[in-house]
Amino acid sequence: MDMQALLIEPIIEELEFSADGLRLRGTLHLPESRPAPLVVGCHGLLSDRRSPKQIALTEACRRRGLAYFRFDHRGCGDSEGRLETDTSLNHRVSDLLHAVRHLYQRPDIQKRLGLFGSSLGGAVCIRAAGPVGASAIVTFAAPVRSRPLKAVFDAVGPHGRAESLLKNEFDLIDDLPKIGNLLVFHGDADEVVPVAHAHEIIRLAAGPKRLIIQKNGDHPMSDPRHQQAFIREAALWFNQTLVMPVAG
Questions:
Q1: Global confidence as pTM
Q2: How many H-runs (helices) and E-runs (strands) does the chain carry?
Q3: Of 171, 199, 172, nearest to 185 (Cα)?
Q4: For 55-98, how does the pLDDT look when each residue is reduced to its tens digit (9 = 90+)?
Q5: Beta carbons of 206 and 178 less than 8 angstroms apart
Q6: Rg (CA), the chain
Q7: Of 103, 245, 124, residue with least CA distance to 179
Q8: What are phi and psi of 18, to 5 degrees?
Q9: Nearest Cα to 214, choosing from 141, 160, 155, 153?
Q10: For 174, what's the count of Cα atoms within 13 Å in the CB-facing half-sphere?
Q11: Spatial CA neighbour of 171 closest among 192, 146, 151, 148
C-alpha cells in the first residue's frame, strides 16, 4: 500500500469484529491525516449504525481530523444476535470494548478515544468509559437507570419485551463520579427519558462537564436546529479534547 495515499485521501471501510462469539459489523471513516484519534458511536435501543445523528457527526468529526467508527450492536442492523434476548447494558458494553480493541490493532488509529452514545448508547458510554480509557464523552438523552427504556421495549419491542434488558437492570450512580470530559445533550420535552436524568448525570459526574438542554427537544432530536447545534458542539468537544492537545 502506498503510505502517501494514507495522508491525502479519506477512507471508508466496512469492518467485522467478534464479540462474545458473535460477528458484529460497522463502518470506519478515516480522515485525510493518519494515524488519527478515534471516536466510536453507540446507537440507541431500537436503532442501528445508520442513525442520521451518527452519520452527520461522522462527517463533522472527519473534517476535524478524527476517525469515526459506527457499528451495529448485537441483534441490531447487520450484526449477529437477537434483539429481544441479547439486549442488555453489559452486552452492549462488551460490544464496545471489543470494537475498540479491534480498532486499536490498526496502525492508522491513535490510542486516543472519544465516545458518543444516544439514549441506551449514552449509558453504554458512561459505563464503558473507564475500562476503555475514553478521553472524551458525548451523550444524548442518556438514562441514568434502565426503567424508561424497559417501558419502551415493553410497548414496541419484539414479543412485547426485551428479556435480557428486563433481567439485567442497570443504574449508573456509581459510574458517574468516575468520568469527566463529558458533554451532555437532552431535550426538555423528552417523553421517553425525562430531562431529570441529564441533570442527575451532570450533578454526579466529575469535570470538565457541560450540559446543553434543547428547548422543546424530543427523544429522537427531530428539530433540525437541535440537530445542527448538536453536530457542531459535539464535534468541537471531541476536537478540543482529542486533537488540539496532540497538535499543541
A1: 0.91
A2: 9, 8
A3: 199
A4: 999 999 999 999 999 999 999 999 999 988 898 999 999 999 99
A5: yes
A6: 17
A7: 124
A8: -105, 140
A9: 141
A10: 2
A11: 146
